[in-house]
Amino acid sequence: MCGQVEWMESTKADEMGEVDVVEQHARPVAAGNRAMGYYSPADEEKRRGVRRMKITATGLLLLVAVVYVLAKLAGNSGAGAWAGYVAAAAEAGMVGALADWFAVTALFRRPLGLPIPHTAIIPTKKDQLGISLGEFVGENFLSKEVVRQRLHTVGIGSRLGTWLAHPEHADRVTAELATALRGALAVLRDSDVQAVVGEAINRRADAQEIAPGIGKMLEKIVADGGHKRAVDLICVRAHNWLVLHNDQVMDAVTGGAPGWTPRYVDRKVGERVYKELLRFVSEMRDMPAHPARGALDRFLTDFASDLQSDTDTRTRVENLKRDVLGRGEVQDLIASAWSAVRQMIVAAAEDERSELRLRVRASLLSLGARMSTEPKIQAKVDGWVEGAAVYVVTTYRDEITSLITDTVAGWDPEHTTRKIEAHIGRDLQFIRINGTVVGSLAGLVIYTVSRALGA
Fold first, then answer.
1. Which of 304, 320, 336 is the last residue of a domain?
2. Nearest to residue 278, comparing CAs of 251, 249, 252?
3. pTM above 0.85, yes or no
């Protein structure tokens, strides 16, 4: 009995002395162990609750010990049969309390500091617990069946549609998309984009011959008479030019005449050439059935056919295409086009009333309304989400579980033990209290049955 009292005092002193130890270890041991090495105010409050419950459980053990001593003294003094019942209950209560104290203490440390096997389970088996926890999570939470079933019951498509159908949510998504678009355009360098666009255009142009396509398009234009307006415009502009530049035409004709011809002859020839040229252009302008127009139609038809079937013509067009794309002016045009497009997109993204943002907002509202009401679209969205989630968990399950095991392995054993004890220690102390109470009742029942059978 004296040994028990000494052990009680030692245990109580150990529990009360934990206050200083907690304060000593309230700082993280390393940056990598901060999660389990740092005690927040909430953790300290939990630890104080654990200490109070330890004092209560230990106090109850001391109480049944005192009751046991008094009952024994009373029985030896001839107090009556009741003293035996009380002593039996108190004795069983002490046994239950001690057994549960040992079990609870063995989780976190070695009872009385003795190297008893299978004690101090959490600090000594921390890494194994981390591996087991990772395997448990991988098998029971990261399996494709569990993920697919859970996401299917959530109904993401329907919920997302209902959420998007609200105008304020559509406005928020539109604003976030506009911000992301501006950020992406700000990150992209113009030179990189221009290089990519230029390379894509050149690769596309090299991969596909353009002559047959141009030939088919020209053939259809001529067949539909779509070129006639262009011919009309050319004829009108040519007539107007000739009227305004009479002197220049005359100078060109007379300047090309031989030097031995008289000047007035050159003048007459120039006037005749000018009048015939003006008459020809005027007739071609005013006569839809002019022979020159017919000759132009036949030329365009033949040219369209050559673009599709003549090897020499197609080769010439391809060479011309490469020459045009290789010119610096074309590359400058690509650069200027991208700059203009980027500025236009940025301006539209910043303007809340721009056509771009209004159309995006309207599309989101329409999509939300359809997703919230149409089961086919909901099923399609759910399938996309489930497929993506299943792919992630099946592809990266080992990485996810290794994150758990590696994180647990990096925790400091002492701080891990104290952290866990702070969170679950209070409930574990109830086990000690329940062990004392249940042990006392069991001892009383056993003693009563024994006396009854002995009687």
1. 320
2. 249
3. no
pLDDT tens, position by position, 139-194: 778 888 888 888 888 888 889 999 999 999 999 999 999 999 888 888 777 777 77
The C-alpha atoms of residue 418 and residue 363 are separated, in whole angstroms, by 54
How far is the C-alpha of 279 from the C-alpha of 285, rounded, in Å?
A: 10
C-alpha 25/C-alpha 36 separation (Å) is 11
pLDDT of 244 strictly over 90: no
Asked which of 320, 346, 377 is the last residue of a domain, the reply is 320
Residue 381: how many CB atoms within 10 A of its CB?
19
Q: How many CA atoms lie within 13 A of 198 on its CB side?
A: 21
Query: Does the pLDDT of residue 28 top 50, yes or no?
Result: no
For 74, counting Cβ atoms within 10 Å of its Cβ (0-12 exposed, 13-18 middle, 19+ buried), the class is: middle
Name, in order, each residue with C-beta under 8 angstroms of 227's C-beta and a sequence gap of 6 or more. 221, 297, 300
Within 10 angstroms of residue 5's Cβ, the number of other Cβ atoms is: 13
Number of domains in the chain: 2
Question: Do residues 414 and 25 lie in contact, with contact meaning Cβ atoms separated by under 8 Å?
Answer: yes
Residue 310's domain comprises: 210-320
221 and 119 within one domain: no
Determine the pLDDT at residue 10.
41
